[in-house]
Write a structure and sequence with these properties.
The complex is a heterodimer of chains A (583) and B (280). With 583 residues, chain A is of the alpha/beta class. Chain A contains 19 helices and 22 strands. Chain A folds into four domains: 181 residues, Rossmann fold (3-Layer(aba) Sandwich), CATH 3.40.50; 62 residues; 210 residues, P-loop containing nucleotide triphosphate hydrolases (Rossmann fold); 73 residues, no CATH class. Chain A is globular. Chain B is mostly helical and 280 residues long. Chain B has a single domain, classed as MetI-like fold (Orthogonal Bundle), CATH 1.10.3720. Chain B is elongated, with a radius of gyration of 22 Å. The chains are: A alpha/beta (583), B mainly alpha (280).
């Protein structure tokens, strides 16, 4: 194979004048045509900066190339040093020779222009006429497997799902048939099942076109499925690079080993927790029981807000949780898992159904249920110091700030592993993981018996995620807490859950003991979810492309779904019987 | 707080604006406690319409009153009106905007439509209408100007309040069972301090101008009291004979508005996180 790109001793810094801070140092790697290189690292490791340096978009972010060469073999056979190229020449390289896909498909497209026009623009830039550009656009959408492409051309970005938009982005990036494609965390903002689709598409298109691919990710599990070679970065430097299999099986550098250990390995239920309280002979009474929980949002259309029915976000959900037990609710976005959690906390009003939450006998707290949110950056008021943040639940419960409460704050902060001088500091002084610990401490201030964790570790880096999960498990054992763990990440769920409920279209389709559900999934949707989980064990797997649309949850007014019929699989494993028509 | 002052003084227009505003504040304070070169009402009959001199730095007017003393009193008067009216407008506007954003639905609709109606009138015209109904005077002009600027504060508060309301930390507060007043004051208000500060500074400049305009038309401060607008109105007939009567009050109004505007711009630069990122 011919060499496409060679980066030597690249250093990039940010800042002005003499005050330049180097962000990446001495990065060297090569990429052949048709090869996939995965750059792996945690946030702040410099992986995105490396990628943005290649097409020199870094210049617009305030960065400067301090040293090194970036040799790129252009399509006309010339070799170019991208590190020293002038801006007007770079404009000809970007797009036509080097394509890029960004993390957030929702924000990377212009919201007021139809997707058809946006893709057409790329072809027009190549000097194609209007009708030529239109036919090529149609082909481009077909190529990324968007069903019914002709009709979708006139859609605006907000009318398409995240996965669809990322396909549009890929179509745009590939429109000029670039020799190199840079994908910067292209699936991080997407659901697992959608992620699998995008990965499948990328690897298939790469086989077809022979494009070189640089794939940036924090997820080593994804790497196994797609990469030929892997480069691991830490704090702006390359710590290890080599063939994918070699890195994954015989990692030399301690940081790579650490990353591999921190990544939750999904093992189809072989490593679930063994301390399930439900299996104990003296099982306690449930501390949270939910019966027939239903949340519907009225749907309106048109200028006069005519009612056109209701969105059945959550439909007749039943479950219970024992003290010391974790029930994980899994499903993709829009399946109603967050709405379920929010209904329990009173943030949305349930249409029907009852739930009962009991306080622990020892404490009798008035608020037995507390919640930890997904985004630790949004769930703490930036203008309040830690002391005010932690005292809020106490004040809300009508208690005074006594010396006991102060002592409780200090001991909780220590327990979740935050420095002792935290009380007078503000949220922006903490990292994402520390903020999430702060949120956990705040939720524990009132001694709840149930914690609702809504994607509580999803926004964190893998190694931070692993430590927060350990903390959660320790706290659960210590305080006999019940967890309702809402997540889309099956590997994380496998580590913390005793039981799993799979939510699909607002309904539980499968519920039961974690090992049984993960190792012996019965419902078609559960199987699909599990098949989509990327793991290190699955090498170069061909994810299956599937263009099924997600079913709508919009129902006509007065619609009542037929009562669920369950089949019992094991002592604690129920599966909803699928209507024959949909199976 | 100290680092904020440092950053404000490091900002070039912030430095100038802060200097002018502080100077005016000092003059206004001196006038309120009665430290002026002469009694502003005392008439030096022999020295009528004298140009600037060592005895009367800014000359005397048609009654032989010291212009500088009257100017100082005028600044004090204008500041009294400007600060009280903006204070009232900010208070009422914040209250309306905050409750409109929080409670939404009918209350939001009623409040915001009412504000839309008020905003549709030109500011001076609305103030005139108000004064015609109530009658002229210092207190009325304070109320009139407050009345005119309330809709602006309502809008400035409602927008950000709506977006903060949807943030996770407000949801978190609700799960703790925090009271509405706690959420409104601790979570919403604290995050609104920055846009409000900017708005207050800019509104002070406008209300200074509006007050001068109303007094100029004879609808604000009544003689023999002194105000910048009134001094300008008195001077127009003598413009060719005694230009200092026009120049000094005119310059004072202009410089004051410039000062508040510069300070407001600087505060916006420093407090708006988007601007801060662009500057970094």
């Amino acid at each position: 194979m011919t060499q496409l790109l060679s980066v030597q001793n690249l250093s990039v810094g940010f800042g002005r004048g003499d005050n330049i801070k180097p962000i990446i140092r001495d990065v060297s790697f090569t990429l052949d045509a048709g090869e996939t290189l995965a750059i792996v690292g945690e946030s702040g490791s410099g992986k995105s900066v490396t990628a943005l340096s290649i097409n020199r978009l870094i210049d617009y972010g305030g960065g400067r190339i301090l040293d090194g060469r970036i040799d790129f073999a252009a399509s006309n056979g010339r070799a170019l040093d991208l590190a020293t190229l002038q801006e007007n020449q770079l404009e000809r390289i970007r797009g036509s020779e080097i394509g890029m896909i960004f993390q957030e498909p929702m924000t990377s497209l212009n919201p007021v222009v139809t997707i058809g026009r946006q893709i057409e623009e790329v072809f027009r830039l190549q000097g194609k006429s209007g009708s030529e550009a239109r036919t090529e656009t149609l082909q481009a959408l077909d190529r990324v497997r968007i069903a019914d492409a002709a009709r979708r051309l006139s859609y605006y970005p907000h009318q398409l799902s995240g996965g669809m938009l990322q396909r549009v982005m890929i179509a745009m990036a590939l429109a000029a048939s670039p020799r190199l494609l840079i994908a910067d965390e292209p699936t991080t903002a997407l659901d697992v099942s959608v992620q699998a689709q995008i990965m499948a598409l990328l690897s298939e298109l790469q086989r077809e076109t022979g494009t070189g691919l640089i794939f940036i990710t924090h997820d080593l599990g994804l790497v196994a499925g797609i990469a030929d070679r892997v480069m691991v970065m830490q704090a702006g430097q390359v710590v290890e690079q080599g063939a994918a299999d070699h890195i994954l099986d015989h990692a030399q550098h301690p940081y790579t080993q650490h990353l591999l250990k921190a990544v939750p390995h999904f093992t189809n239920g072989n490593h679930v927790r063994e301390d399930a309280p439900r299996l104990a002979p003296s099982a306690a009474k449930a501390c949270l029981s939910v019966e027939g929980l239903t949340v519907r949002f009225p749907a309106t259309a048109g200028l006069l807000r005519r009612s056109i029915g209701a969105i059945h976000a959550v439909e007749s959900v039943d479950f219970d949780i024992l003290p010391g037990e974790t029930l994980a609710i899994v499903g993709e976005s829009g399946s109603g898992k967050s709405t379920t959690a929010r209904a329990l906390l009173g943030l949305v009003n349930p249409t029907r159904g009852t739930f009962r939450a009991d306080a622990q006998q020892a404490t009798q707290s008035q608020k037995p249920m507390q919640m930890v949110f997904q985004n630790p950056y949004a769930s703490l008021n930036p203008r309040l110091d830690v002391q005010s943040l932690l005292s809020e639940p106490v004040l809300a419960a009508g208690q005074r700030l006594t010396r006991d409460i102060q002592a409780r704050m200090t001991s909780l902060l220590e327990r979740v592993g935050l420095p002792s001088d935290s009380l007078t500091r503000y949220p922006h002084e903490f990292s994402g993981g520390q903020r999430q610990r702060l949120c956990i401490a705040r939720a524990l201030m009132l001694d709840p018996s149930i914690l609702v964790l809504d994607e509580a570790v999803s926004a964190l880096d893998v190694s931070v995620q692993a430590r927060v999960l350990d903390l959660l498990i320790d706290l659960q054992k210590e305080r006999n807490l019940a967890y309702l763990f809402v997540s889309h990440d099956m590997a994380v769920v496998e580590r913390i859950a005793h039981r799993i409920a799979v939510l699909y279209g607002g309904q539980i389709v499968e519920i039961g003991e974690a090992r049984s559900v993960l190792s012996n999934p019965q419902h078609a949707y559960t199987r699909k979810l599990i098949a989509a989980v990327p793991t290190i064990e699955r090498r170069r797997e061909r994810f299956e492309l599937n263009t099924d649309a997600v079913p709508t949850l919009l129902r006509p007014a007065g619609y009542e779904p037929p009562p669920a019929e369950w089949s019992t699989l094991a002592q604690d494993h129920l599966v909803r019987i699928q209507p024959a028509a949909n199976a | 707080m100290r680092s904020f002052l440092k950053r404000l003084l490091g900002h070039s227009s912030g430095r100038i604006g802060a200097f002018i505003v502080c100077l005016y504040l000092a003059i206004a304070l001196a006038a309120w406690v009665g430290i002026t070169p002469y009694d502003p009402l005392k008439q030096f009959r022999i020295d009528r319409l004298q140009g600037p001199s060592a005895a009367h730095w800014m000359g005397t007017d048609m009654f032989g009153r010291d212009v500088m003393s009257r100017l100082m009193i005028g600044i004090g008067q204008s500041f009294l009106v400007a600060f009280s009216s903006v204070g009232i407008a900010a208070l009422v506007g914040t209250l309306l905007g905050l409750t409109a954003a929080w409670f939404g639905r009918l209350w939001d609709g009623v409040v915001m439509r009412l504000m839309d109606v008020l905003l549709a009138f030109p500011a001076i015209l609305l103030a005139l209408l108000f004064i015609t109904v109530v009658g002229p005077g210092t207190f009325t002009s304070i109320l009139a100007i407050a009345f005119v600027y309330t809709p602006i504060f309502t809008r400035v508060v409602r927008g950000p309040a709506l977006s903060i309301r949807a943030r996770d930390f407000v949801d978190a507060a609700r799960t703790f069972g925090s009271s509405t007043s706690y959420i409104l004051t601790r979570h919403l208000m604290l995050n609104l301090v920055a846009p409000l500060t900017v708005q207050v500074t800019l509104a002070l400049a406008w209300s200074l101008l509006t007050e001068s305009g109303l007094s100029f038309l004879g609808l604000g401060t009544q003689p023999p009291n002194s105000s910048l607008g009134l001094m300008l109105a008195d001077s127009i007939n003598l413009m060719e004979m005694a230009p200092w009567l026009l120049i000094f009050p005119g310059l004072t109004v202009m410089l004051g508005i410039l000062g508040f505007n510069l300070l407001g711009d600087a505060l916006r630069d420093l407090l708006d996180p988007r601007m801060r990122r662009a500057a970094a």
